[in-house]
């Protein structure tokens, strides 16, 4: 019996040593490539347009990256079931409203939202509008971007969702809650990775 136990120990020792070496190598590799992984998970694409329109509308560019990542994962040809288009997933009704505000004399059509610059221009304006309307509160602005200003304004009048009538404390709809969480967490990651 003692020889069998000794043999078991002699077999287990190299296996445990190998597992330890592999775990250590994995940890070192992960640490070495963590920055690359984070940049891959939270990319910055269309930087020229994002930076320009963020500056024009006074928005932290990391907020715009968070919206684009959440809305389309940087696919300029993205379409939603709700009929939203492009990088920042703008619906036709919202496009028409924004066009009236920032481009009333331009011959842009809803199809132009597949163009990254046009989409980021319109989306940046709308993000800026929502942030201004809700005192710079990102979560409330994100809820409005997702569910509409009218919906959020209605919720702000209900104590169950807003204690101050200016920002939302709670989100009654699961999709809205999930969207706000995605935007705020994505913004946090972008801010940590790129600043």
Automatic annotation (TrEMBL):
<dbReference type="InterPro" id="IPR008258">
    <property type="entry name" value="Transglycosylase_SLT_dom_1"/>
</dbReference>
<protein>
    <submittedName>
        <fullName>Soluble lytic murein transglycosylase</fullName>
    </submittedName>
</protein>
<dbReference type="Pfam" id="PF01464">
    <property type="entry name" value="SLT"/>
</dbReference>
<feature type="domain" description="Transglycosylase SLT">
    <location>
        <begin position="49"/>
        <end position="153"/>
    </location>
</feature>
<dbReference type="InterPro" id="IPR023346">
    <property type="entry name" value="Lysozyme-like_dom_sf"/>
</dbReference>
């Amino acid at each position: 019996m003692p020889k069998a136990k000794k043999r078991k120990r002699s077999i287990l020792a190299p296996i445990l040593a190998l597992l330890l070496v592999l775990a250590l190598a994995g940890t070192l590799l992960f640490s070495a490539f963590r920055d690359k992984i984070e940049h891959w998970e939270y990319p910055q694409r269309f930087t020229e347009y994002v930076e320009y329109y963020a500056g024009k509308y006074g928005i932290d560019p990391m907020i715009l990256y968070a919206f684009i990542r959440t809305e389309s994962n940087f696919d300029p040809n993205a379409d939603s079931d709700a009929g939203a288009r492009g990088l920042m997933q703008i619906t036709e009704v919202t496009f028409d409203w924004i066009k009236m505000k920032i481009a009333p004399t331009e011959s842009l059509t809803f199809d132009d939202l597949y163009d990254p610059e046009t989409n980021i221009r319109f989306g940046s304006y709308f993000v800026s509008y929502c942030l201004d309307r809700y005192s710079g509160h990102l979560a409330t602005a994100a809820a409005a971007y997702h569910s509409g200003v009218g919906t959020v304004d209605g919720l702000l009048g209900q104590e169950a969702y807003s204690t101050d009538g200016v920002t939302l404390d709670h989100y009654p709809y699961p999709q809205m809650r999930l969207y706000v969480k995605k935007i705020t967490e994505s913004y946090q990651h972008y801010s940590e990775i790129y600043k």
